[in-house]
Amino acid sequence: MMEVSGLRKAYGDHTVLDGIDLTVPTGTVYALLGPNGAGKTTTVNICSTLLTADDGEVRVAGHDVRRESDAVRRTIGLTGQFSAIDELLTGRENLRLMADLAHLDRATAKASVDALLARLDLVDAADRRAQTYSGGMKRRLDLAMTLIARPRLIFLDEPTTGLDPRSRRELWSIVREQVADGVTVLLTTQYLEEADALADRVAVLDGGRLVAEGTPAELKRQVPGGHVQVEFTDGRSERLASDGSVASLRKILDGLDDSEVAGVTVETADLDDVFLALTGHPTTDATTEEKEVLA
Amino acid sequence: MSTTYAVRDSVTMLRRNLLHWVRYPSLAIMLVAQPILFLLLFVYVFGGTMGAGLPGAPTGADRTDYLEYITPGILIMAVASVALGTAISVAMDMTGGIIARFRTMDIAKVSVLTGHVLGAVLKSLVAVVVTLGFAVLLGYRSDASVGEWLAAFGLIVLLTFALTWLTVGMGLAADSVETASNTPMFLVLLPFISSGFVPTDEMPWGLRHFAENQPFTPMIDSLRALTSGHSPGNDLWLAIGWAVLIAALGYLWSRRLFTKVPAR
Ligand SMILES: Nc1ncnc2c1ncn2[C@@H]1O[C@H](COP(=O)(O)OP(=O)(O)O)[C@@H](O)[C@H]1O
Ligand SMILES: [Mg+2]
């Protein structure tokens, strides 16, 4: 569905993308995993015709994004990192606007708007201004606006950043439905868990370079299975590698003196662990997710 | 992109533009109120003295004569005022993410801008009609025929196109909404240094030279001739020439800015 080769982009002498190659097969989910500033949005913007690269080539469904941008635009849909809804219009009006711009006929437009409002749980808010929506509702409306033209390739730039766990799971299930319909998805994320849950393949981006590429299983094999964080009564803390198995936990606990330990936290592999393992340096923007608290 | 889509997309964008004005009417109200305030100010504060001072004014000329004299200039100020609003709404649009979405869609690119322009033409007509209504309430009367009024409105629409394409460009070029509300201010002020409020021969040499050669003067003179039932003569061609030139330059400038503005 999409081939990217040798993509380069610089702003002045600040190199943002330093030779990116990706192949996204039709009907799959491809995740670009990386911390803030890695170049995820820049990559998505080039692939979705918003920006031009300094060098390299992107082909979407066989069309070159630069020379055949209209053909590419007929194929793609983008839900960007920042909200792209019209806040003065209602949810229904926003969708209708997109349906008209997608040149749907009246009956199809109305049916699609109603169906998407229902699917994205926006029926009650449909006739309220988007200004009044919560963050999660704005994200859902944004996604609905992308879906109404029935694009074959969808770009989702950090679709769940800032969402609560329930909204996140809801969004994941919508993405899965799209893929079941044969749609191809390129998403960016800062969460290893999200790439693992959704993606068929993952590329890890760091400072404008791909540092790893493969299936989530392949990727996780390269990463130690998380760590145990130990807080001592004297205020010290220590991070001990652990794959999360009972055996490894027992071994760690056996080595600790009850009277000296204030608390123990078991953490699954997060972006920081992936980065530490793959690049030898931590991310500047680590997010950790507490799995279980033992004390 | 076929022309039918260009028309359809422009109409879609026009609908969006008009909805914005319905949802956020305070800006529109302010812009329409501005020329009306100037009308009241000039007629009631200066009107008595100015009316008597108009060239060729019969003895006993008063406020009503002055009202008749300035109404064309005030109508053009109404158009300029709406054009200023367009710069603001274009700049507001550009700060929102929805423009990026439009850019990834297979739509007629210029429709994003033509939506604003067509919306401005409708709003200008409303502003002109409301302002004219006020003038009539104050005692303005016209001897012109229906045909002359139609020609006057035709000229107003042409002028709206010209000023609006210019202010669309200003809105695109502005780095903030505030800049966008300042740069087009001169359009509202220029009619003061034209034949709109006092005849240019009463001005000092330098100012007179400017006033006689700036585009608003032939526009206001033509409008004044048409609405009082006289032939505008050469002024009309000058006015049309200026309007076409400004519209073409504004359009080309705006289109260039719009196609090269990068994504955030
Ligand atoms: N318009 C721009 N001008 C200069 N630098 C930019 C611009 N856009 C992005 N960058 C820089 O490019 C790098 C990558 O940005 P981005 O692609 O947004 O990363 P991500 O989406 O992964 O957080 C960052 O260091 C950012 O500061
Ligand atoms: Mg980003």
Order of helices and strands of chain A: EEEHEEHEHHHEHEHEEHEEHEHE
- Give the termini distance of chain A in whole angstroms: 50 Å
Output the structural class of chain A. Answer: alpha/beta
Q: What is the element string of chain B, with H for helices and E for strands? A: HHHHHHHHHHH
Q: What's the average pLDDT of chain B?
A: 88
Total number of strands of chain A:
14
Describe it.
The complex is a heterodimer of chains A (295) and B (264). By secondary structure, chain A is α/β, with parallel strands linked by helices. Chain A has ten helices and 14 strands. Chain A has helices spanning 40-47, 69-75, 91-101, 106-119, 135-147, 165-180, 192-198, 216-221, 246-254, 271-279; strands at residues 2-11, 14-24, 29-33, 55-60, 63-64, 76-79, 153-157, 184-189, 201-206, 209-214, 227-232, 237-241, 261-267, 290-294. A six-stranded mixed beta sheet of chain A has the order 6-7-8-3-9-10, sandwiched between helices. A four-stranded antiparallel beta sheet of chain A has the order 2-1-4-5, with helices on one face. In chain A, helix 3 packs across helix 4 (106-119) and helix 3 (91-101) runs parallel beside helix 5 (135-147). Chain A is globular, with a radius of gyration of 22 Å. With 264 residues, chain B is an all-alpha fold. Chain B has one domain (18-47, 61-260). Chain B has eleven helices and no strands. Chain B has helices at 3-23, 25-53, 63-95, 98-103, 111-137, 146-173, 177-182, 185-189, 205-213, 216-227, 234-260. Chain B starts with a helix and ends with a helix. The structure holds adenosine-5'-diphosphate (ADP) and magnesium ion. Adenosine-5'-diphosphate binds next to strand 2 and helix 1 of chain A.
